Amino acid sequence: MSSPSDSARLAVDIGGTFTDAVLEVGTRRHTAKVLTTPAAPEEAVLSATRTVLALAGLAFRDLGFFVHGTTLATNAIIERKGAKTALIATEGFRDVLEIGDEGRYDQYDVLIDKPKHLIPRHLRFTVPERVDVHGKVLALLEESAVRAAAAKLKAHGVESVAVALIHSYANAAHEKRIRQILAAELPSLQVTLSSEACPEIREYERTSTTVVNAYVQPLMAGYLERLRELFLAEGYAAPIHMMTSGGSLMSLETALRFPVRLVESGPAGGAILAAHTAAERNETRVLSFDMGGTTAKIALIKDFVPFKGRTFEVDRAARFLKGSGLPVRIPVIDMVEIGAGGGSIARVDAMQRITVGPDSAGADPGPACYGRGGSEPTVTDADVLLGKIDPNHFAGGTIRLLPEESRQALERAVAAPLGLWATDAAYGVAEIIEENMSNAARVHAVERGVVVSEYTLVSFGGAAPLHAARLAEKLGIGRIVIPADAGVGSAVGFLRAPAAYELVRSRFMFLDQFDTGAATALLAEMSAEAQALASSAASGRPLLEKRLAYMRYSGQGHEIPVLLPNRGLGKEDVPALAEYFEQEYRRLFARHIPDARVEILSWSVLVSTEETAETLLPAVTPIAGPEPVAARQVFDAQLSKMICVPIVKRSDLQAGATVSGPAIIAEDNTSTLVTATFDAQLDAGGGLVLTRKRVD
After folding, report:
1. Which of 170, 187, 399, 485 is spaced 20 to 30 A from 198 at the CA atom?
2. Residues 469 and 413 in one domain
């Protein structure tokens, strides 16, 4: 048995269908993919971990690093399986959640379905108090009202409470006092303060973020504590790190306080992998495509950095429509996620159209071909019937698929209603899901002003390599990269993520009335907090700091980030800030507004470990690919018929080996379908590069 070593690094990603584990020991990598166990997710984590440790000949005590990402928080919100949660707001602001931003995501739909809120109105309470925008107390907190609210919380059996008072980002004293009173009255109650979860302006977004955090906190705290105890019992002694939605790591202790930052943690790992894949190959424009068992995620990466944002919507009622979900203000990698995974369920609607998703068969019961009780046809069932998946070697042979179950499910639910053969029905399902994904990519690219056909597609996830070539054909993309171990790509990305923590706080001031003392004190306080939270996940690595001010012309609705020096600010900095703001404004809008008054709304401090620059991969000399190990009938979308396609094992490929499509390149955790449009070559980094064939 090996001795404990920091070189043994583990990453585990819980998805809606599969739980993936990646173990890196020096330059060696071991992977595992097991079905997620929704009732007790930690069981799948342990199972996958034991598998990769056995492959490496190691034990839990030999691990020096463990990072974990999970969809549990997201799923709890979507399925409304979080804690019974209440809200305490300032008197007169009980209906902040209902009023929202007074917008309608579809203003002409008279029967619009707005997002269902996590807290019903009868569990929203108010207390007399008032603070102004500068933090001045206008009315003291009425503590008797807080105690009266505590009695109601107890009577209703509330498990968690969100406290969101007006302008608490400027003065948190009243919120902190409410927490003290609730702790005395109800010691077991979980409490989330908006001044800690989201200390920013815009009451609706701040309240919604606080509510989401409170709603998932008991569930996530219970799960993470159980996981920590189980790993400790197995002999793991090092810290557990958590992946965040912003593509960075934070400590388990921080995650227990702010589980809202874990929303979209798995997809963020995939974007980090895509960015590193791009840097190794000097691909400056990349479209990241991650397709797993439940969803597909698409993100844009430019100059090796994923597009990022500060607002995300959970559980959208209408796909692609902003405002149809629950907003959370957290650092997040900007991506679009749709219900398009291997487990997405296919059906025929009232207009005799094939529709796919967004609901999924998940891991339990799973697709019909799993033989676990699922009876509805899914994308995986269609892929089996189209010959894309080998039923005997799915998930490395750990799951034996039943093609006849796929055929029967597709015949019953899709083929029979439309008068089609089962294979034609499967082709229809595949085309619909691929068109859904290509449409999502087009919309995402257009919204950000890029031409998607000029980008390279980096594809990973258990299902993505099966659909990447057809997606690229639809989008006009001529180059695809399938990184090594693409089937567990998000977990691989976890091991490339920096440790980081970002704080954003609102503190309003006009630039011509700049309060240098207040600004310097605020940034110093934020820096100390961010340094402490980032260092807890940094494992001793040095930290870098980046400071920003979010500025705008007075009266505008959106801000522009302006870089600040990492020091105290003085009056001499004001002209430079004005100049930086106008430069950035001109870059975005071609001109600035002369003599308009400039204001600062919020301040940001990001502390992170320094990312190591990727080494550019050397070019390879093309060589002939290996002999196929087998062949099977696969449906060709261009010819609309089954054709005989050679099967090549990816493990048999050497750097430079070329395989001409059509072909299937098989590996344990996924397979890549190379259509007749593309040639494939293994590069020096183990990536499979598909290049569109030249047409003379």
Report:
1. 187
2. no
